[in-house]
Structures are given as C-alpha cells and as structure tokens.
Write a structure and sequence with these properties.
The chain is mainly alpha-helical. It has one domain. Helix content is about 75%, strand content about 5%. It is built from twelve helices and two strands, in the order αααααααααββααα. Strand 1 (about 195-200) and strand 2 (about 205) form a beta hairpin. Helix 1 crosses helix 6 and helix 4 (about 55-80) packs parallel to helix 8. The longest helix has 28 residues, at about 130-160. The radius of gyration is 22 Å and the shape is globular.
Length: about 280
C-alpha cells in the first residue's frame, strides 16, 4: 500500500490537470474575494464580513473534484498501468484505496489554496466573525463532505474504464447533486407567510400577510431538511450561506456516504473485468 501511495503522489505532482485546477482555484478565489471587497466598499462595509465569502468554494469544490478524480484515475486505464499493479502483486482493494486517498488529497489541497488565497480579503473585510470554534467546525464539515464527494467520484472512476466516459459520468453526478441541493435550499428558504405589502398604481398599501403556497411544511420539510444535511453539495451550500444548524448530523452523514461509497466501490471493482 505504501508503494502504491508513493507512486500515486509522485504521479500527482506531475499531473497537468492537477496544477491547472490549482491555478484555476487560485484565480477564482482572488477574483471572487476582490469582488466581495468591491461590494463591501460600495456599501460602506456595513453588514459585510469575511465569513460571507470565505466558504463559497464549498459550493463548487465538487466540480473541480469530479474533473480531477475522473481524469486522474482514467489515465491508469488508458495507460494500462492499473493492470501492471495487479501483475506485481497488489490487491484490487489496495489499488482502489490508494487512488481514493491521492484523489482526496488533491481535493483538500485545492481547498487549501482557496482558503489561503481568500485571505486577500482580510484587509478590507477583517477576520472571521464566526469565532474560532465555529471556524474549526466548518473546516471539519468541509473535510468530511469532500471525503464523501471523493468517495463517490472514485466509485465512478474506478468502475468506468473509459477516461471520457468517466469524466462525463462524474461531472453529471456532481452537477446532479448540486442541482438537487439548490432545489432543496430554494424550497426550504421560502417564507411561511407572504409579504403584507401590495404594490398598486397608486403606490404601496399594507395588507394582512397571507400563507405562502410555496412554503414547505410538515413531514416534507423534515425530509427536505434531512436530505439537505445529508447531501455533500447540500452541506456546501449551507456552509457558503453560513446556515449550518445540525453539524453532528452533517458529519455523520458525510462519514456514512464516504464509507458506503468506498465499500460499494471496492465491491464492484473486485468484480470488474479488466481486459
């Protein structure tokens, strides 16, 4: 296993896609944070803080991870190196886990680049207002939901032989998860009552608040809330909007998704025909 990891990290440092994505994350972070600083300056800095922008990467990290993991693992199939690992005696589980760990490390490094580059906003927005304990909690949630995403992308990458097919499948998975989280977040953000302000030709008039037909309540709200906390992309949206309310459930869900995807991926990979 140690030899597989050593070879995997050696390949990572030479991987062009990895460095391209690292550069893209760096530029993305700087541009996004400077735009946030511009917004804050335009409004006199009132109501703005570093926290509002710092965790935005949690929303899009899955897309970066999907592209990298699928292409990184797919290269092993296209180059034929994955069969060579079996020839010299490595087990399928060890090969699977080594690729999973290297891919997860790459995603963590990309997130680290964002977090360091995003500090460019400190002179304009100040430091975090959420507090050290909440900051560490957010970072822990981020690490675990990135582990869950990596496990899902590794499941696809290790069991879909073609590099192009793997990349498409992983991107569709990432986009599907992000779309599902966005729809859940939008539904849960609907107020229970509509505004009591009515705009007419004569101006605005006050009316009694009315029930919002789009509001999600009852058992359906409980289900939506659970799914939002359980989906890695849902956790990313909650982090970006500073709306984390059930951290223990989120951590447990990420650990469960990562474990299930890894066990399932290894099970399928052991039965995969590698011709």
């Amino acid at each position: 296993m140690s030899r597989l990891l050593s070879a995997g990290y050696s390949r990572l440092w030479k991987n062009k896609v990895f460095w391209l994505e690292m550069g893209a994350v760096l530029v993305y972070a700087v541009v996004f944070m400077l735009n946030g600083c511009r917004q804050a300056a335009a409004n006199g800095g009132i109501g703005y803080s570093l926290d509002q922008f710092y965790f935005h990467f949690a929303v899009s990290v899955g897309l970066f991870g999907a592209i990298f993991t699928s292409l990184f693992i797919g290269t092993e199939y296209s180059d034929g190196t994955i069969r060579n690992k079996f020839v010299i005696g490595h087990s399928r589980a060890a090969v699977y886990l080594s690729n999973l760990l290297v891919s997860g490390s790459a995603m963590l490094l990309m997130a680290g680049v964002w977090m360091l580059a995003a500090l460019i906003g400190v002179p304009f927005l100040g430091f975090w207002k959420t507090g050290a304990a909440n900051l560490l909690l957010y970072l822990l949630i981020a690490v675990l939901f990135m582990a869950a995403l990596t496990a899902l992308f590794a499941l696809v990458g290790m069991n879909v032989s073609g590099k192009a097919a793997s990349a498409v499948a992983s991107l569709l998975l990432a986009l599907g998860l992000l779309l599902a989280a966005g729809m859940l977040f939008s539904s849960l953000s609907q107020p229970e009552m509509t505004s009591g302000v009515t705009v007419t030709a004569d101006g605005m008039s006050m009316t009694d608040p009315m029930p919002n037909p789009s509001y999600v309540g009852g058992m359906r709200r409980e289900v939506y809330t659970f799914l939002m906390d359980a989906l890695p992309t849902g956790q990313g949206l909650l982090m970006a909007n500073l709306s984390v309310e059930r951290p223990l459930r989120m951590l447990a869900a990420s650990a469960g998704v990562a474990a299930a995807a890894t066990v399932g991926g290894i099970f399928l990979f052991r039965r995969k025909d590698l011709k």
